[in-house]
Amino acid sequence: MASNSATDSPVPYVDIGGQFQDDRDALMPIIEEILASGQHVGGVWEGRLEAALTQWCGTKHVLALNSGTDALILALEALGIGPGDEVITPPNSFVASTAVINRVGATPVFADVLADQNIDPRAVERVVTTRTKAIMPVHLTGRVADMNPIVKLARDRGIAVIEDAAQAIGSRYDGALAGSIGDVGCFSAHPLKNLNACGDAGYLATDRDDVADYVRLARNHGLMDRNTVTRFGTVSRMDSLQAAILEFRLGRLDDTIKRRRANAAVYRDHLDPDLVFSPPCRNMEFNTFHTFVVQVDHRDALREHLNGMGIGTAIHYPVPIHLQPAAAYLGHGEGDFPVTEEQAGRILTLPIHQGLEEAQIARVAAVVNAFLRKRR
Length: 376
Ligand SMILES: Cc1ncc(COP(=O)(O)O)c(C=O)c1O
Prior knowledge:
39% of the residues lie in helices and 14% in strands. It is of the alpha/beta class. The structure holds pyridoxal-5'-phosphate.
């Protein structure tokens, strides 16, 4: 029986094209202005975005860059991390968190995660050595990792903290904004992020003048002025179009986060806690729900069932980084990080984007509950 009811229409995992349609009238004049200005790189928009972002990141400096990956690489470089150094990070993340450590010639050292998928501070403590130069927690799903013990450990040992806040713009922990807790915070503005560009983009936040000075030069060939290079750099600037689009969307970020949090609350109210595990919110945190990841039995069958019902899902991430072929040189095998490995087979990311309505979220939850009840 066909039905047009909103409650059984498809629920797309993302709707980036739809977001553009909503923004279209406001964005098109901005895009035209930039194209007509001829200042496609190095215009006024980059600086304007940086000024606007300092409030969201809660730091003295914010530097606009061309990706979250480059933000992480430049942060590591700025802290002088390279061959012979170790950086501790979780094996459950997007591959960039580990890849950047490899890129600067340092050694990634993994620490397993907790039930909430974020790095376990006690596991970090167990793998610190005299070669550890930085700890890089990842605020996965928009939930800030348990930073107090990590920062304490790092300060006691003289180790830097680089927050991979790619998924966590606007998230808070114990009153502090994600990205402002450690030495450097690195953010992605990839199209799938809560604050998203129309292409690759990222930014770096820090209170440290030395880090900001390094990144400001390094992102633009190391040029002090038009003709003077004191230290060779790279090209990692944010272009004018992405900067202006992000400045515009920053004005809507409060609303985006509000809607995502409301959708998360609907999931919490409707999903059966006996069948579906979703990490509880701590009192000290403000989660921006970049993703809504649950842990379930029969994950693959459930995903297929949801797909058949027109409900889009994702898995973040099906293969832990330590088991990726690229990480073979580190010598890890199955069983080394049991929590991450167990989660890899159980995690499922449900649709939560700001364009979804309560009835759609409630429908997803009902389909999940019904499927799992039958399998129990
Ligand atoms: C946790 C994490 N770290 C780093 C990155 C890299 O960011 P970008 O894609 O902007 O280079 C991402 C982006 O997907 C991410 O989710």
